[in-house]
Specification:
Layout lengths: L5 E9 L3 H12 L4 E5 L6 H6 L1 H18 L15 H26 L3 E4 L1 E4 L4 E5 L13 E10 L3 E3 L11 E2 L1 H5 L7 E5 L3 H12 L3 E6 L10 H13 L3 E4 L2 E7 L4 E7 L2 E7 L1 E4 L3 E3 L32 E3 L10 H15 L13 E3 L4 E6 L2 H6 L4 E7 L4 H5 L6 E7 L5 E8 L2 H13 L4 H5 L10 H10 L7
Parallel strand pairs: 1-2, 1-6, 2-3, 6-17, 8-15, 9-10, 9-15, 10-11
Antiparallel strand pairs: 4-5, 5-6, 7-16, 12-13, 13-14, 18-19, 19-22, 20-21, 21-22
């Protein structure tokens, strides 16, 4: 390809997911001329189109159905709700997902971001190509469009891990497949009881499916402390979800009507049958097939791009953000990193200097954490104290019929600096923001105790736990 066919751009962003589109918008706001390359015909990435957003829509529907059934204690009685799942799916796709993606596309247009559709691959530290299709077309005579750039932000995200013995099919599905089922299955097997598996298991159980979770670890939600996950386990079991931990799923047979999953359960070989088998055992970064081997960019043993605190790689004009970098694969981490990288390109003294990234599981009840746990702190040689207040002592939680769970604060023993917090209970996904601010600002538990929290609200257990931490418990 001759130099005359090479196009030059200022800032190029690869991937329009949470990290990519935010990076493009912020870079434009900082005066850069931005080109955004997206492999699909949709903006918003996996999170908006096939992950975070549509899953929360189905979870919301499940909660409404469950709430409609559990009304007798409030003196309410009416005919059981009927679910038109086709209508549910239409609402999820058209009124939620497409509405949000239209919003993102509108923001990109407002900021004069050029969108180029195609699969991007790097030829060197300064040159990339955009192919009309995926990497399987690289051997085609069509060499695509070739670009040089001043700066590049890579935000290519991640994809589900496929187990060789459980290949994807019509009935063996990943999370995307689970979000787009044509009907609520009568029976569903979920392999992997992490965030995604637990959330979708709960949603489909609420909608009437008989769900079996198979998890290899001693408990579901293995990345959370056991006293958090145990409350979620009890709630799932109350919904009829069958949970098996410490098990190994060996193989699967799939036909047009369903699946047979062969497992080792209680040291015995068993066969479980279901309409669908959802496999959610983690995700892998999309750092392969994009030509990084032809650049100076360094990749670690986990396939993640090595960056500095501004997201800059070993190639000084190439940045990486989101799931392809170290740390939790969470959209809000990508949002933050996107702004940092765009600022760095503009010459601002930005840095990914957060102490803790909040993590949320939209289970029932919700689980949310930030910073470190007591065990993690002590392994780091930090002496800590914990303070815990139950939602059962909170008037708002009890009046909502949601008394299960607690708030726990982890603070340094000498100065009382908040370094971690865990919540399991109603509204945990929203409540964690206050504690994330406190952890990242290195606030003292006394600062929280002296902050007036409105009554009666779900936020009060945070203040109550802080009162316990400073030695003056009130409602416990």
């Amino acid at each position: 390809m001759s130099d005359s066919t090479v196009e030059h751009r200022g800032t190029i962003v690869i991937g329009s997911g949470p990290g990519g589109y935010v990076a493009a918008i912020r870079a434009s706001e900082l005066g850069q001329k931005v080109t955004l390359i997206e492999a699909t015909d949709r903006v918003g990435g996996i999170c908006l189109n096939e992950g975070c957003v549509p899953s929360k829509a189905l979870i919301s529907v499940g909660h409404r159905i469950r709430a409609a059934h559990d009304t007798d204690q409030y003196g309410l009685s009416f005919e059981a709700p009927k679910l038109d799942f086709a209508k549910t799916q239409h609402w999820k796709q058209h009124d939620v997902v497409e509405r949000m993606t239209r919003g993102v596309r509108g923001l990109l247009k407002k900021h004069d971001v050029e969108i180029v559709q195609g699969f991007a691959t790097l030829d060197s530290d300064t040159v990339l190509r955009v192919m009309p299709a995926g990497p399987q077309q690289f051997m085609s005579v069509d060499l695509g469009r070739q670009f040089t750039f001043d700066d590049l932000i890579i935000a290519t995200g991640s994809r589900p891990i496929e187990i060789p013995s459980f290949p994807w099919g019509d009935r063996v599905i990943d999370s995307t497949g689970a979000l787009n089922l044509p009907e609520v299955p009568k029976r569903m097997i979920v392999i992997g009881g992490g965030y995604i598996g637990t959330e979708l298991a709960g949603a489909y159980a609420d909608m009437g499916a008989k769900v079996i979770i198979l998890e290899g670890s001693p408990s579901i939600l293995p990345l959370f402390e056991s006293d958090l996950s145990s409350i979620v386990t009890k709630r799932l079991e109350a919904k009829g979800v069958e949970i098996h931990t410490g098990v190994r799923a060996r193989d699967v047979d799939e036909d047009a009507d369903g699946v047979q999953v062969f497992v080792t359960l209680n040291d015995e070989e068993e066969t479980l049958e279901a309409d669908y088998c959802l496999v959610t055992v983690g995700r892998r970064p999309n750092t392969d097939n994009i030509g990084l081997e032809f650049t100076s960019v360094e990749i670690d043993n986990h396939g993640l791009v090595v960056t500095d605190e501004q997201g800059r790689t070993a190639s000084p004009h190439i940045y990486a953000i989101g799931d392809i970098t170290a740390g939790p694969a969470l959209a809000h981490k990508a949002f933050f990193q996107a702004k940092t990288a765009a600022g760095a390109i503009a010459g601002q003294p930005t840095a990914n200097d957060y102490i803790g990234v909040p993590a949320v599981c939209f289970s029932d009840p919700e689980v949310a954490t930030v910073g470190v746990t007591k065990d993690e702190a002590e392994k780091q040689g930090v002496a800590v104290e914990t303070a815990k207040f139950p939602f059962a002592g909170n008037a708002r939680a009890v009046s909502l019929g949601e008394p299960d769970g607690f708030v726990r604060l982890v603070s340094t023993k000498d100065e009382g600096t908040l370094i971690g917090a865990q919540i399991v209970g109603p509204g945990a996904s929203d409540l964690i923001s206050e504690l994330s601010l406190a952890v990242n600002a290195q606030m003292n538990v006394e600062d929280i105790a002296l902050t007036i929290h409105p009554h009666p609200t779900l936020s009060e257990p945070i203040a109550e736990a802080a009162d316990i931490a400073i030695g003056y418990p009130t409602h416990i």
